[in-house]
Amino acid sequence: MTAKEYTLHSPRWADDALRFALRCCPSRPDCEDAVQEALASLWQRCSHVDCAKGKPYILGATYRSLMHSLRHARVERSHADAIRANLPGTQEADEGFDLREAIEHSLRVLPEVQRAILQLRDVEGYSYREIAETLELSDSQVQVYLFRARVAMRKQLKSLGYDNDR
């Protein structure tokens, strides 16, 4: 890919990557950081990446960067929760879910790869081949992960009281 091709296509790829990242993570600043890291990575490897592979490269790099920061945040949260659990007088509030919150909660408990595949396929409308290239998986792995994600979502939503048998 040439610098001219990068300049021409990268804004559109960045928009797609940001939209995808926002569906995987609620924190817009974290998503924007992940997209910027992906763009910088592509710029550094510009001469080694074919222009046709630019979009999957950006999406994949954004996904990996975002998952790294989410894992780090999860570790920090678990340490904070452990400290909070040892403090006297702390109680969890009883949460009521509406359907949107239930879906978001169900997405959050999925493994990262299943959540990403579900988002790319069902929300963004990507093909199995595009998802496979983006996440560096085989087509069959994408199909299996998608099936498992949908089954897990149904179970989770049913456990929260949303048991629509469609």
Secondary structure layout plus pairing:
Layout lengths: L2 H22 L3 H17 L9 H32 L13 H10 L3 H12 L4 H8 L3 H21 L7
Name a few traits of the molecule.
Arc Repressor Mutant, subunit A, 166 residues
What does this structure look like?
α3 crosses α6. It is built from seven helices and no strands. The chain has two domains: 92 residues; 73 residues, Winged helix-like DNA-binding domain superfamily/Winged helix DNA-binding domain (Arc Repressor Mutant, subunit A), CATH 1.10.10. It starts with a helix and ends in a 7-residue tail after the last helix. It is mainly α. It is globular and about 50 Å long. Helices cover 73% and strands 0% of the residues.
Question: Could you provide a short overview of the structure?
Answer:
By secondary structure, the chain is mainly α.
Mean pLDDT: 81
Residue share in helix:
over 70%
| Beta-strand content bin | under 5%
Order of helices and strands: HHHHHHH
The number of E-state strands comes to: 0
Radius of gyration: 18 Å
Quickly give the structural class. mainly alpha
Question: Any idea what the shape is?
Answer: globular
Separation, N- and C-terminal Cα atoms: 46 Å
Low-confidence stretches: 89-97
The structural domain count equals: 2
The number of distinct helices, counting runs of at least 4 residues, comes to 7
Biggest beta sheet summary: none
